[in-house]
Amino acid sequence: MTKTKHHDEVCHDIRKSLNQISMNAELLRIVSEGQPAQAELAAIAEAVLASSLTCSELLKQLKG
Asked: Per its UniProt entry, which superkingdom is the organism in (predicted)?
């Protein structure tokens, strides 16, 4: 695999993870407007954290 193709794939994966972070943050905001259910809020927060970790790992791959 060429370096450019690898970078394109990693960039795609980073964009995907950032989109998941954004969507989950928006969901967290919406859910917290009403009467928040602790378990639901915790699950959303875990999804945001997992996506953030994925982005971090992908950026490490880009660095080499």
From this structure: Bacteria
